[in-house]
Amino acid sequence: MVKVFLIGYDYKYEIREFLKLFYPANSIEIITDIKDSTDILNKDYKNDIIISELKIKNNIITARNKIINVNKSNFKETINNIQINKNENETKIKKLIKILLKSSLFKLLQTEKNKYIPWGILTGIRPVKIAHGLMDENKTDDEIIEKLVSDKLLKKEKALLLLEIAKRERPYVYPIDKNKVSLYISIPFCPSRCIYCSFPSNSLSKYYKYKSDYLKALFIEINATANLIKEKNKKIETIYIGGGTPTCLDSDEISILIGHIIDSFNLKDLKEFTVEAGRPDTINIEKLKILKDKGVTRISINPQTMNDITLKRIGRNHSAIDVIKAYEMAEKIGFKNINMDIILGLPGENIDMLIYTMDEIKKLAPNNLTVHTLAIKRTSKLEKENYEDNNTNIVDMLEISKEYCENMGLKPYYLYRQKHMLGNLENIGYAIPGNECIYNIQIMEEKQSIIAMGAGAVSKIVFPDEDRLERVPNIKDLITYMDRVAEMPERKKIYLI
Ligand code: SF4
Questions:
Q1: N or C, which end of the chain is more exposed by having fewer CB within 10 Å?
Q2: 3-state secondary structure of 338
Q3: Cα separation, 224 vs 230, whole angstroms
Q4: Listed residues 153, 171, 189: the one ending a domain
Q5: pLDDT tens per residue, range 145-163
Q6: Rounded to the nearest 5°, which phi and psi values hold at 50?
Q7: Which residue in 224, 329, 37 sits closest to 4, CA to CA?
Q8: C-alpha distances in angstroms, 428 versus 52, 84, 342?
Q9: Ligand 1 center to 166 CA (angstroms)
Q10: pLDDT band at 237 (very low <50, low <70, confident <90, very high)
């Protein structure tokens, strides 16, 4: 338990989020409206206390942070200053204050707690963007690393990783072509719900009866969106059908859906067409042949783990053998670009189990592998059941997965972070060079508009000249989406120029 007193400022939310790096969420109590620290020190507390004080005088901002342990036998303190330009606008000043407070607190707690926090004070989900920003300013590699380490307090290995990924992404992201877009189409059905899932996927058993009505509604949105894209003269670079698990649809439905996409959009500039075939239990030879014949270039077959006991525990209705069979079937049909997803730190998994998973994947030798770190997402079953992670090996697990990838010739090409990830780590997409998923890069780096269709899908319209992005969400609830589908293209029309 820690009591945190904020003096001279009130960024309660930001400080709580930040302190979760060091303390369990339910052990943090934040108190504001404190005039000075004398009162606090005179009281008897049954827990550690942090006093975080902010002062602004003569354009110098000072953050003074002190941690006092429970028996008041010792305390540690950091004092950090920054000078601000007197003409600086309020938004920029607020941003600088938050950075100062976080870095000052970070330095204090890092020495006190001695915890491995590789991403320093970075909390955003797209850290590679920072490396791109610094490259855009023509900074040298050394300057970029130095800046990430000293300003954001990243461990050097993470700074190097960001730079490596940014370099690999750049040929796909630049030069920015405002007329290019990618399409995302959501099929929000799954055979069962994974315990870590927070996507708006509707388990088939309950929503099966709506499948064909959903496709009818989706086609309405596809038609109107295709007209919009034609009207605005946009070129389509990639298509991604995700969800959910699109291969939950039966063969005819898949054939009709992809046929409808091909007939509706001008695909002469298309470079990549991905379909998530995530659950091996939804794949058969007929469906794979349809995907291949219709021009799908990339599919994803996701084991998450190759340990049957875990697969059962996380709510998937398939075994590791099903994954192997589905993979071999896809390869035989001629799919060259197959991705596999795994998750590190699944409940009950230890290092030996990860090594087994990696050995099995190595035998299959996919040219894309996405390594996720388990995140306890809001609305997931894990979160609802107050799952407490006791996995202290997560950093080693990430390292082991990295070594296997290196060994398989896979290079990291995109990275993102999520809230509530074990060890506050990251997800990394690896690929054999030349097989990187362009859609994944575009959605991460946000320099290309993503036009999304289907229940729960979110379009992202970018305005590169203004460094601005508008999120345009579709309705999440399946039934309401079907009722109000005509509104969805109208929402996009407002922003697409
Ligand atoms: S397969 Fe993916 S979308 Fe479906 S329930 Fe599992 S995590 Fe969610």
A1: C
A2: strand
A3: 10
A4: 171
A5: 999 999 999 999 999 999 9
A6: -120, 130
A7: 37
A8: 35, 37, 10
A9: 28
A10: very high
Gap between the Cα atoms of 482 and 478, Å rounded:
6
In this structure, are 151 and 192 located in the same domain? no
Residue with the smallest CA separation from ligand 1 atom 5 is: 193
CA atoms within 13 A on the CB side of 381: 10
Q: 260 and 162, same structural domain?
A: no
Ligand 1 close to Cβ of residue 372 (< 6 A):
no
What CATH number has the domain bearing residue 97?
3.30.160.100
How far is residue 299's CA from residue 279's CA, in Å, rounded to a whole number? Answer: 11
Residue 494 has pLDDT above 70, yes or no: yes
Token pair, residue 43, equals 């009281």
Least-confidence region, from 79-88, 127-136, 263-272, 397-406: 79-88
Considering the domain architecture, whether residues 195 and 235 belong to the same structural domain is answered as yes
Query: The CATH number of the domain where 420 resides is what?
Result: 3.80.30.20
Residue 123 within a domain: no
Q: How many CB atoms lie within 10 A of CB 447?
A: 22
Q: Give the bridge partners for 83, in sequence order.
A: 60
Token pair for residue 119? 């991403």
DSSP 8-state secondary structure symbol assigned to residue 239 = E
Q: Is the pLDDT of residue 36 over 80?
A: no
Write the pLDDT tens digit of every residue in 249-278.
Answer: 999 999 999 999 999 999 999 999 999 999
Q: Please give the distance, rounded to the nearest whole angstrom, from the Cα atom of residue 218 to the centre of ligand 1.
A: 20
Same domain? 382 vs 471 = yes
CB under 8 Å to 258, separation ≥6 — which residues?
Answer: 241, 275, 290, 291, 294, 295, 296
pTM as predicted? 0.92
Cβ 199 under 6 angstroms from ligand 1: yes
Reading the block at residue 414, the tokens are 């995109």
190 lines ligand 1 (CB under 6 A): yes
First to last CA, the chain: 51
> Which domain, by its residues, includes 103?
2-113
